[in-house]
Amino acid sequence: MNEQQIKSISKFLSLVLRHQPDTIGITLDANGWTDVQELLTRMHANHKPLTLAQLKTVVDTNDKKRFAFSADGTMIRASQGHSVDVSLGLPPVTPPEYLYHGTVGKYLDNIRQEGLQKMSRQHLHLSRDKQTAISVGSRRGLPVILTIRTGQMHRDGYLFYLSDNGVWLTDHVPAAYIEF
């Protein structure tokens, strides 16, 4: 598989494992897992043939580690970013004092008024470093990096989770905790 094929498969897996499993007729369990063999069978039936070796390549080479196999390799799920109702089973953890969020300028007025919202996803995503936030924000244009006072938020009772691929998750960031 070439890089473009891997990227295309990764995008499709993001769609079915994070947002629309019914696109190919799979179901996700309460924790977002689906059977690997069922996924491969359904991919083939929907004219998107994929071998186990190719699936492993996509999972192993994804720079953002968007997908994970279960310990025994029989199940797969998205690491975070779901818009469907699943529980990743992540325990609340203490965040670092500051985390970052990449966005673009056209959203700043709304963010100043309402803070950061999770929108259609289950959680809002925050980055541990500015470079990752720049990468995230760059997907929609010239990035603006917001510094989030997550240590203070945590001390004030807000919960944070750390996904398997290192993305920090929370439900909402009020504007008072954002440094613009």
UniProtKB/TrEMBL annotation:
HAMAP family: KptA. InterPro entries: Ptrans_KptA/Tpt1, RNA_2'-PTrans_C, RNA_2'-PTrans_KptA, RNA_2'-PTrans_N. It holds the Pfam family PTS_2-RNA. Its EC number is 2.7.1.-. It is an enzyme of class 2 (transferase). One of its GO terms (molecular function) is transferase activity. Removes the 2'-phosphate from RNA via an intermediate in which the phosphate is ADP-ribosylated by NAD followed by a presumed transesterification to release the RNA and generate ADP-ribose 1''-2''-cyclic phosphate (APPR>P). May function as an ADP-ribosylase. The keyword Protease does not apply. Belongs to the KptA/TPT1 family. Keywords: NAD, Transferase. This is Probable RNA 2'-phosphotransferase. It comes from the Bacteria. NCBIfam families: PRK00819.1-4 (NF002014). Gene3D superfamilies: 3.20.170.30, RNA 2'-phosphotransferase, Tpt1/KptA family, N-terminal domain.
